[in-house]
From TrEMBL, chain A:
Organism of origin: Hymenobacter qilianensis
Listed transmembrane segments: 45-63, 69-90, 123-144, 156-178
Domain of life assignment: Bacteria
Protein name: Uncharacterized protein
Keywords attached to this entry: Membrane, Transmembrane, Transmembrane helix
From TrEMBL, chain B:
Keyword Transcription: yes
Protein's UniProt name: DNA-directed RNA polymerase sigma-70 factor
Source organism, top-level taxon: Bacteria
Annotated keywords: DNA-directed RNA polymerase, Transcription
Length: 207, 171
């Protein structure tokens, strides 16, 4: 069958006009929550922001509760880190806002979605990186402080040196595991969708 | 963003293009509930994008096709319910088994069933072609060159020919 015949077939049936929508039904449609992937990502991001805000509010109580200066410092590090996370979420929302514009041409829209999803992956990976680095620095500092109470002179120097090496190696392994886990989690979360969108874009662009 | 388009104007716009929007939904979703979900999502996205329409200056139907197709192509739901086939397989013969709803209904149902075997991207090409768009308009909506549209349409025609010839062999 030729495309022209299909078009004729299509036109024979395209003339049926559906019942006009009432103002009420259109109002209901525009008032509903969107099911789009971007809306769902934004909803998840708000939950994550909620959890971080909760941590930001709760940590000062912990800082006040503990007497140990280094536990206080440890918690303060995470308090500052949590505040810094809000910047990442600001960037995430900015990306999501860009992905929300569906009035581009199909290729442009697919490109925006793909770039946006890739951007979100980068943001998550950076968050993992900073959490790991902060945890390692805080833990190393805490252990070094404990060592200053036990040793002095050359013994202290070697103990701290050894601690730094152990923490560095532990941090490297921990970071590798964090990245592995984050990538696996993100692939589960967005991977399938991203792969499909990339497939569509490739198909659309290929000549 | 809180859109504040003139409601009556938007209602008129949606009603004037409702049939076209329904055809997009029918083409991308076989299931009636999915079609309604997709239609509502398209109307919602049109509403959100409407305040930006004036600035863009594109033809209103072109703008609506863009949004309709963008929502349909990038939508996750129908893919999870019904994965798109990546190649022709024996099930393609179901094309010939459209429900007997009278001559016209069977004809269009057969066409829809054939189109179901195309990829989501190919469906967009076919829809725009069937809706009497020129290659220039198709290129504008899809964001590719006219030459690419021509090449793709040629391949799609071959694919549809195979689908229909197999369904005829089955008959």
């Amino acid at each position: 069958m030729e495309l022209n015949e299909l078009r004729q077939m299509w036109n024979r049936h395209a003339t049926d006009e559906p019942t006009p929508l009432s103002a009420h039904s259109v109002a209901r449609m525009v008032a509903r929550k969107s099911d789009s992937v971007v809306t769902r990502l934004r909803r998840n991001a708000w939950w994550e922001v909620g959890s971080i805000v909760y941590v930001i509010i709760a940590l000062p109580f912990g800082i006040d509760y503990f007497n140990n200066q280094f536990i206080k410092g440890y918690l303060l590090t995470f308090e500052l880190l949590s505040v810094a996370f809000l910047y990442y979420y600001y960037r995430k929302f900015k990306l999501l806002r860009r992905m929300d514009h569906v009035d581009k041409d199909v290729r442009g829209h697919l490109q925006t979605l793909i770039l946006g999803l890739r951007g979100l992956l980068t943001i998550y990976l950076r968050l993992s990186l900073w959490v790991t680095i902060a945890a390692i620095i805080a833990t190393t500092s805490y252990r070094a402080y404990r060592l200053t109470l036990k040793y002095d002179g050359g013994e202290l120097f070697w103990s701290i040196g050894l601690t730094v090496i152990i923490m560095f190696l532990t941090g490297t392994v921990l970071y590798w595991l964090m990245i592995k886990f984050t990538k696996w989690y993100l692939q589960k979360l967005y991977g399938q969708h991203l792969d499909r969108l990339e497939g569509y874009l490739h198909e659309l662009q290929a000549e | 963003m809180a859109p504040d388009p003139n409601t009556a104007e938007f209602l008129t716009l949606v009603n004037a293009h409702q049939a076209m929007l329904r055809r997009i939904c029918r083409l991308y979703c076989a299931d009636a509930d999915d079609q309604q979900d997709l239609f509502q999502e398209i109307v919602l996205q049109l509403w959100r994008a409407y305040p930006r329409y004036e600035v863009r200056g594109a033809k209103i139907s072109t703008w609506m096709y863009r949004i309709g197709l963008n929502v349909a192509v990038s939508d996750l739901r129908q893919r999870t319910r019904k994965p798109a086939p990546d190649r022709l397989n024996p099930q393609v013969l179901e094309v010939a088994q459209a429900p007997d709803l009278g001559t016209d209904s069977t004809e269009i149902a057969t066409l829809y069933r054939a189109i179901e075997w195309l990829s989501e991207v190919e469906k967009a090409f076919v829809l725009l072609y069937l809706e009497e768009h020129t290659y220039e308009e198709m290129a504008d909506i899809l964001g590719i060159t006219q030459n690419n549209v021509r090449v793709k349409m040629h391949r799609i025609q071959e694919k549809l020919r195979k689908i229909f010839s197999r369904s005829e062999q089955w008959n």
